[in-house]
Specification:
This protein is α/β, with parallel strands linked by helices and 922 residues long. It folds into five domains: 8-246, 2-Layer Sandwich (Dna Ligase, domain 1), CATH 3.30.1490; 257-346, ATP-grasp fold, B domain (D-amino Acid Aminotransferase, Chain A, domain 1, 2-Layer Sandwich), CATH 3.30.470; 387-516, 3-Layer(bba) Sandwich (Glucose Oxidase, domain 1); 535-625 and 705-915, Phosphoenolpyruvate-binding domains (TIM Barrel, Alpha-Beta Barrel); 629-699, no CATH class. Helix content is 47%, strand content 16%. An eight-stranded mixed sheet has the order 12-22-21-14-15-16-17-13. Strands 24-25-26-27-28-29-30-31 form an eight-stranded parallel barrel, surrounded by seven helices. Strands 1-2-5-3-4 form a five-stranded antiparallel sheet. α18 (458-466) links the parallel β16 and β17 (470-472). α23 (587-612) runs parallel beside α28 (717-736), α24 packs across α25 (667-674) and α24 runs antiparallel to α26. It is elongated. The chain starts with 7 loop residues before the first strand and ends in an 8-residue tail after the last helix.
Length: 922
């Protein structure tokens, strides 16, 4: 017995469940044959043969492969009663690709193989239909020429169009046998001229060349690009099988047709046969768009018996595969054949609807209903998106930082965005980069575009939290905020020009593109309810305002896992008070400013607690460096210069007794005058100069590793004390009103238990005061973010003080890799991903081998000290399905993510539970 592997399987002997070996198409052909559907006979050459071929430096077919193929051709001849290459009774075959994962149109197919000058005449005699035979012949020459001989397709098209033009034919259907014979002769000349050799007449040589061509197409550019785009790795699908199938013909006359159908509508999920067909055509005509096909329902009148058989086929396919099927069929002289079936590709609304309806119909159970939908697929339901039919050319491309799409007029600063937004205008905020003081512009804008920054930049994080589209780091756009223009190559975009951004792709378009609005359907609510019943991980939302909290509840959040107190400072009405606090030179002056902020924060917390009651709300004390609440140095310098110029202008005009002009040389001074907001020039100048001095005083070499988080709380205890009081007094008010609350006070940037003990002392002191003043018991929990590597190593000690941990994986990833997030994403991370140095961007997908190991150690050591320690994650990766799967694996209690990703996280948490036995990360 030979040790050589078996490379070829007849449809009757192939295992329909082995898609890795036989490819999806081949496995399904074997399976359909096994269950008795009318499938043309054939055989499958395995993916192992493909991999052996591709591994050979000289691209030689594996030894013995063609011997096996010839043996299976003999079997095929016996089944069909025809001969391969037989001039009297020719057997023709199709040669088609098929990987383990469907990659429609990405690899090559050749139809009508086995034709030459002699078998062509045999086909004419066999069918009595010269037009059909010459049509098949010219199709084969062109397809074989393009795929196997690499002849450019347009060379054939030029000759064919010339013949059609000469005879006045609008389509190939208007051509008779003579014109098609002429086209075939012209195509043979094209092959000879391009390759220097005649078209191959040996049918076995044709077959061998076709097998090689299909194998080669696995490494073709479009297939490689497709696998990269959809993250199809070798462990998912490796190599393509080759399916050799006896040809059946849909172009044999008016009683023949070909078509593609879905067992349910792939756009809506409606439970009805959906598809198209063409009479007197071959399958490529439908998918290539050569002719306009007819809706499948028309077949009920045109071919009623075939339509009835199609409805029966639809039912059998769905009952067997328990999934919506996309199938191809051909009718040859009134006989229906099923040529292929695969799981149908549908949009998210259709997937959700069919999951719920198929469960109710008893076709699938709830486990299958949940697992058939990829969590990230739900993004389509949650954000406005570009119309799928839109074919605009991108003006520029950046990083897809927050999904969804938006159109609006360009504005270059947050104040203008707010002013125009109040007037009802749709605006896109365009900045070099954003800062916290731009927050009011975010509220007003439809979307955000920055020329600098990454997917975890301020703009990206805030936009995701708001559910607004964002394109970040579009370095091809040069933004000049002072001149109010953005330049892309030769294109100049001015304030007021309309653009469209697509935060799902990173594309930026000139003008307004058509949109499709999201839908949160009842079927989605049902599906996610099933997910919640299954999941062990809870899902919370990152939310900073009462409106954010209400939105999070609509998406099904089970609490707030991260409420960032600094976001409350960014309100335009509060920012001046925050600036007063920063500029204060004494603790007393700082306390006075904080006393003004206290009622504002207290009211915010009260409203958030009320919205989320009785769910937990984790409040993070102030985290960023305080200089971030001040304008950038270059902006202050520019404003100070304008104010000084204004002072000089006013002085000069006063001497002359003239008014300040609105345009021309005095325009800049006029704008400066308008910005005074009730101050004198000297007052405004003094304040701006004070800000500039403070910005320079607070400047740090690396602010992300500097004076921030708990370090601020210990240096300026009055800041943290104000925030703690606001939280506890808001909770006390809720208790007084009979509202159940579950507040959690979280300290950021902790690296030692001593820091936690300092802050806990503030909490205990203020808690006692609040309870005494309010006359009620005020519940709370005290915990810390884990975002410093040392904190992971001291988890056991920290857990003696903290009642909960929450991983801040944005900063923890940055610290673990020693990467600056924005620099890494804009400089070298794409190259690292492309070269396989890193498989994923660690700021999007949790790095389980590095950051994940730290998390695992932290959970284990923390729970040794405090067995009931609650642990969650609130970094960006908390909404990523693969990261959620890891969080489930290491025993986290919850994940927290931006509100629009909550449905995705809920489904991912269910998937993690349902597939926990399959998970490996070593």
């Amino acid at each position: 017995m030979s040790d050589r592997p078996k490379y070829v399987y007849d449809f009757e002997e192939g295992d329909g469940g082995d898609k890795r070996l036989l490819g999806g198409k081949g496995a399904n052909l074997c399976e359909m044959t096994r269950i008795g559907l009318n499938v043309p006979p054939g055989f499958v050459i395995t993916t192992e043969a493909c991999l052996a071929y591709l591994a050979d430096p000289e691209r030689r077919l594996p030894p013995g492969l063609m011997d096996e193929v010839r043996e299976h051709i003999r079997r095929l001849e016996a089944k069909t009663g025809k001969g391969f290459g037989d001039p009297a009774n020719p057997l023709l075959v199709s040669v088609r690709s098929g990987s383990a994962i469907s990659m429609p149109g990405m690899m090559d197919t050749i139809l009508n193989l086995g034709l030459n000058a002699e078998t062509l005449q045999g086909l004419i005699r066999q069918t009595g239909n010269p037009r059909f035979a010459y049509d098949a012949w010219r199709r084969f020459i062109q397809l074989f020429g393009k795929v196997a001989l690499k002849v450019p397709d347009e060379l054939f098209d030029e000759r064919f169009e010339a013949i059609k033009a000469r005879v006045g034919a609008r389509s190939d259907l208007d051509l008779g046998a003579d014109e098609l014979a002429e086209a075939a002769e012209a195509f043979l000349e094209v092959v000879r001229a391009h390759t220097g050799r005649p078209f191959p007449a040996d049918v076995h040589a044709q077959l061998e060349a076709a097998v090689r061509a299909v194998f080669d197409s696995w490494m073709g550019k479009r297939a490689v690009d497709y696998r990269r785009e959809f993250h199809i790795t070798p462990d998912i699908a490796n190599g393509t099988a080759v399916n050799v199938v006896a040809m059946v013909f849909g172009n044999m006359g008016e009683d023949s047709c070909t078509g593609v159908a879905f067992t349910r509508d792939p756009a809506t999920g409606e439970n009805r046969l959906f598809g198209e067909y063409l009479v007197n055509a071959q399958g490529e005509d439908v998918v290539a768009g050569i002719r306009t096909p007819k809706p499948i329902q028309e077949m009920a009148q045109e071919m009623p018996d075939i339509y009835r058989q199609l409805l029966e086929l639809r039912e059998r396919l769905e009952r067997h595969y328990r999934e919506v099927q996309d199938f191809e069929f051909t009718v040859e002289r009134g006989v229906l054949y099923c040529l292929q079936t695969r799981n149908g590709k549908m949009n998210a609304p259709a997937m959700v609807r069919t999951s719920v309806e198929m469960e109710r119909e008893g076709l699938i159970d709830r486990r299958q209903a949940l697992l058939r939908i990829r969590p990230e697929h739900l993004e389509q339901l949650l954000f406005p998106r570009l119309d799928p039919g839109f074919r605009g050319r991108p003006l520029a491309t950046g990083l897809p930082a927050s999904p969804g799409a938006a159109s609006g007029r360009i504005v270059f600063d947050a104040d203008t965005a707010e002013a125009r937004g109040r007037l009802g205008e749709k605006v896109i905020l365009v900045r070099v980069e954003t800062k916290p003081e731009d927050i009011h512009g975010f509220f007003a804008a439809q979307g955000i575009l920055t020329s600098r920054g990454g997917k975890t930049s301020h703009a990206a994080v805030v936009a995701r939290g708001m559910g607004k589209p964002c394109v970040a780091g579009a370095e091809g756009i040069r933004v000049d905020e002072a001149a109010r223009v953005a330049v892309v190559g030769e294109t100049v975009l001015r304030e007021g020009d309309v653009i469209t951004i697509d935060g799902s792709t990173g594309h930026v378009y000139a003008g307004e593109a058509p949109m499709v609005e999201p839908e949160f359907t009842g079927d989605l609510a049902t599906l996610l309810g099933w997910a919640d019943e299954v999941a062990r991980l809870g899902v919370r939302a990152n939310a900073d305002t009462p409106a954010d909290a209400e939105r999070a509840l609509r998406f099904g959040a089970q609490g707030i896992g991260l409420c960032r107190t600094e976001r409350m400072f960014n309100d335009p009405a509060r920012l001046p008070v925050v600036v007063d606090m920063i500029l204060a030179e004494t603790p007393e002056a700082r306390a006075a400013a904080l006393e003004r902020l206290l009622p504002m924060q207290r009211e915010d917390f009260y409203r958030i607690f009320k919205v989320m009651a009785p769910r937990p709300v984790t409040v993070r004390l102030l985290d960023p460096p305080i200089h971030e609440f001040l304008p950038r140095e270059e902006e202050l310098v520019r404003e100070i210069e304008a104010l000084r110029h204004l002072r000089e202008t006013l002085a000069g005009l006063a001497v002359l007794g003239q008014a300040l002009p609105a345009e021309g040389a005095g325009a800049e001074a006029a704008r400066a005058l308008a910005s005074l907001q009730g101050q004198t020039v000297e007052q405004a100048l003094a304040r701006k100069e004070g800000m500039l001095a403070k910005v320079r005083e607070l400047r740090e070499v690396n602010p992300m590793l500097g004076h921030r988080g708990v370090r601020l709380g210990i240096t300026y205890p009055e800041i943290y004390r104000m925030q703690i009081r606001a939280v506890l007094e808001a909770a006390a008010r809720c208790v007084q009103e009979g509202i159940a609350v579950d507040p959690e006070i979280m300290v950021p940037q902790v690296c030692t238990a001593k820091e936690l003990e300092y802050v806990r002392a503030y909490v205990d002191e203020i808690h006692a005061e609040v309870e005494r003043e309010a006359g009620v018991k005020v519940p709370f929990r005290f915990g810390t973010m884990i975002e410093v590597v040392r904190a992971c190593m001291r988890a056991g000690r920290l857990a003696e003080v903290a009642e909960f941990f929450s991983f801040g994986t944005n900063d923890l990833s940055q610290a673990t890799f020693s990467f600056s997030r924005e620099d890494a994403e804009n400089k070298f991370l794409p190259l690292y991903n492309e070269k396989g140095i890193l498989q994923d961007n660690p700021f999007e997908v949790l790095d389980v081998h590095g950051v994940g190991r730290l998390m695992q150690i932290t959970v284990e050591w923390g729970r040794r000290s405090r067995p009931d320690l609650k642990v969650g994650i609130c970094g960006e990766q908390g909404g990523h399905p693969e990261s959620i799967r890891f969080c489930h694996h290491i025993g986290l209690d919850y994940v927290s993510c931006s509100a629009p990703r909550v449905p995705i996280a809920r489904l991912a948490a269910a998937h993690a539970r349902l597939r926990e036995d399959e998970y490996r990360f070593d």
